[in-house]
């Protein structure tokens, strides 16, 4: 079915299909007639996270190699570090992953989101906390009451900001121009990091946003206001 969709979107003008995946299985799609109208977004993570928390998905290097093959076949490729789970060697893993991304591929957008939408108690049931950075685990436990009313729990703002800034610095060492955005983050975090990111919550290019067409650097209008209802019940940017 997905192959049919890819080739259908290949017949359209100004319309794009976005595929979000952790798979490394791309061989079947490389010769499809996509005509540049399919964007593939890989959820990417460091080696430890991919091995210990994402069984059955492609490994870090397998996903990057799949993206490389897809890009060679003419697809637009993107990455989302989502969710970023702060495992013990997360800094090292982030550096190796980002090096691999830029050594093998040329994405048009990178997005980031720390593990969230889960309170501390649920996280300790879902994840092997012995694998987590003990400093960040302690910070999450200490901040239980503080973050309880937010959707960005269990990690407090300062922990998330440190993770984002580390990834952003590594990305900028490799590429000064690529749009880097936060995904499903709070307005507070956007205010904190907008200058470093080079975009705001109103004009950033999202990895899978409806106005984030290939190789776009920023949105030209407010995506929350400048929209009109499309002919089939969707919404289009004006």
Describe the structure.
The structure is a single chain. This protein is 39% helix and 14% strand. The protein starts with a helix and ends with a strand. With 238 residues, the protein is an alpha/beta fold. The longest helix is centred in the last third of the chain and has 18 residues, at 157-174. It has one domain: pyruvate-formate lyase- activating enzyme (Alpha-Beta Horseshoe), CATH 3.80.30.30.
The gist of it:
The chain is α/β, with parallel strands linked by helices and 238 residues long. The protein has 9 helices and 7 strands; from the N terminus they run αββααβαβααααβαββ. The chain has one domain (2-115, 156-237): pyruvate-formate lyase- activating enzyme.
Indicate the overall shape: globular
N- to C-terminal separation? 31 Å
Work out the helicity level: 25-40%
CATH architecture type: Alpha-Beta Horseshoe
Main sheet makeup? 5 strands, parallel
**Strands ordered across the widest β-sheet:** 1-2-3-4-5
Please tell me the overall pLDDT.
93
SSE layout and pairing:
Layout: H1 2-9, E1 17-21, E2 38-43, H2 47-53, H3 60-72, E3 76-84, H4 90-104, E4 110-114, H5 120-126, H6 134-142, H7 144-147, H8 157-174, E5 180-182, H9 187-197, E6 227-229, E7 235-237
Parallel strand pairs: 1-2, 2-3, 3-4, 4-5
Antiparallel strand pairs: 6-7
Helix pairs in contact: 3-4, 4-8, 8-9
List keywords for this structure.
single chain; 238 residues; alpha/beta; pyruvate-formate lyase- activating enzyme; five-stranded parallel β-sheet; two-stranded antiparallel sheet; 9 helices; 7 strands
């Amino acid at each position: 079915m997905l192959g049919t969709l890819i080739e259908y979107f290949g017949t359209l003008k100004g319309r794009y299909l976005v595929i979000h995946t952790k798979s490394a299985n791309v061989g079947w799609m490389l010769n499809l007639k996509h005509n540049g109208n399919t964007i593939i977004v890989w959820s990417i993570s460091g080696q430890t996270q991919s091995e210990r928390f994402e069984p059955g998905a492609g490994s870090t290097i397998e996903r990057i190699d799949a993206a490389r093959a897809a890009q060679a076949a003419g697809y637009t490729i993107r990455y989302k570090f989502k969710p970023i789970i702060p495992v013990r060697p997360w800094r090292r893993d982030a550096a190796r992953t980002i090096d691999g991304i830029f050594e093998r591929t040329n994405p048009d957008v990178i997005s980031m989101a720390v593990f969230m939408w889960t309170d501390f108690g649920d996280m300790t049931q879902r994840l092997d906390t012995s694998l987590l950075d003990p400093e960040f685990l302690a910070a999450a436990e200490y901040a239980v009451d503080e973050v309880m009313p937010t959707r960005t729990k269990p990690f407090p703002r300062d922990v998330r900001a440190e993770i984002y800034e580390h990834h952003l610095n590594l990305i900028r060492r490799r590429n000064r121009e690529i749009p880097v955005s936060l995904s499903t983050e709070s307005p507070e975090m956007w205010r904190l990091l907008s200058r470093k990111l080079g975009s705001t919550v109103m004009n950033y290019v999202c990895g899978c946003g409806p106005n984030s067409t290939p190789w776009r650097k920023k949105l030209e209008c407010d995506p929350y206001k400048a929209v009109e209802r499309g002919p089939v019940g969707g919404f289009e940017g004006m």
